[in-house]
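Re: the pair you flagged

First of the two:
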Amino acid sequence: MAVTIVGVVTDLAAPTLHSISLEEVRARDAFVRWSIPDDGHAACWAVGSSVAVVHRRAPRPMLPSPWAVLLGRPAELRPLVDALPGLIGGPPAGVTMSADAYELIPHDWAFAARGHWDYMVTSTVPAVPRGVEIEEIDDVDVINAVLDADNADAHARPGDPDVQCWLGIGEGSAMACVGALVLTHNGGGHLRAITTLRQARGRGLGSALSAALTRRGLERLSPEVTLGVYSDNVAAIRLYERLGYRLVHHFTSAARAEPRDQSDIC
């Protein structure tokens, strides 16, 4: 219901800030469903369809805490941002939030943006191209050689406890493309560190490997598989769309203090 007072339209049914359960947010949002630990340390609030989820222990060990996730429309996120310090006893140490609302962050929070990235999800099992030999690899030196050559800041490395497997595609006697399937906090499959050597690009190896990792995640881990990709990597985004991934969020991540490992932001 709306009324006009001295020429101003006022919405008497404007949504108000209220607490909401993590289970409710997880049911409607894939990022929260798979990326926010359900370990009793998260608190959630909503305004309309927009939410703030604060994890009092950072959802990943390399991030400062508390860490806030802010999802939704700028108009609804504004009261959540304004109220957050009072709700949690001060500003959060960092945020992952809808990119178009990042300008709402107050200057006195002293944040610096650390990454602009897209979160994508699929429940569609992709076809793996015939004639491409994809193998599971466990040779640390082989994997690191590819990552060190063309993806030194990879978001996964051999030995990471959440990695379920590394797959690779070889050319001749060397590995030309590698990637990891990791297990998220809540049991979801997530693709990381997909890397093709520069001299082997343009042959569809990254697409084939991504398809194989996605298929394995859907068949063995979870009904959805997710990934994060930097927003300016248009070629990779188009590749994932062809494999059946859809965009869920455009994100900006930011923090007061630089994380110990900047690649751990997303």
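Second of the two:
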Amino acid sequence: MTDITAAIARVPLFGGRDMKAFRINGGITNINWRVVDQATRETFFVKLHGPGTEQFIDRETALSAAKIAAAKGVGPQVFFHDGDAGIEVHEFLQGFTSCGVDDAQDATVRANIMAAYKDVHDSLKLDLVNTGLQQFEDFTAKVVGRSAQVPADIDQLIWQCRRAKAAIEASGVSLAGCYNDAYISNYMRNDAGEIRIIDWEYAAANDPYWDVAMFSFEIFFDDLRGVASMLEMYEGQVREDVLARTYLYIGVAMVRWGLWAIYQSENSPIGFDFAKYSRMLLLRARRQIGSADWDWALSKV
């Protein structure tokens, strides 16, 4: 559903109330709205599922994860969910604003995001398994050989990612409930640097270091020194094998999300330049994979 008026009419919580909707820009998967009761000024966040997103989002798992995150104080409360109509109603986080990359240069914000991740990884129990390495293979299958937007060097990028995959799998992977997303505006902060994380749509059991890697690359802490600083915040130590693993995950994640962006550019009606976003991500992937640190990480994982 993309009609916000029709969506409001389907929400029992809004029955008999004068609700006015205001579009929230910035989402690149769904269509988001701020909905306000004109009498009481009570405000809600309403999400309308993006057309076609059922191809790569398990909405029932996303709902379970969102409820667990809310109970832990990491995410907003969930008030209503209609999976068939593609409507969700969540707590509107008053006093919180979306982070930008500049916010993440604040050590308090980074530390609080890592603390939230640690809490989630220790408590989020999900049946769906979707590791970062699986995600990479899934989008390789969806896009490569099917899209004219795939770059000429994609075979080289895929080969390098599969080298990383083989090395990581050979060393073993432990799973926990993970967020599996790191789009910077999904992290909400208040003036005290407290954090809430929204949009748990990609949540699944995965290697927790994939989450650390994703956030590290999103905020440009993607060299060994930056990754080490994030691991120190996440678990109070930096082990060489974990540093290597997380560094490799960054390269794989850049390719995975670059392919996702190509897929979205050809399937999503949302007004976002996914093609440009893909080119940026794959350019960063080339830099990551082309570094001498890549071969070091392959030997140390």
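The first helix runs from residue 4 to 9.

-B.
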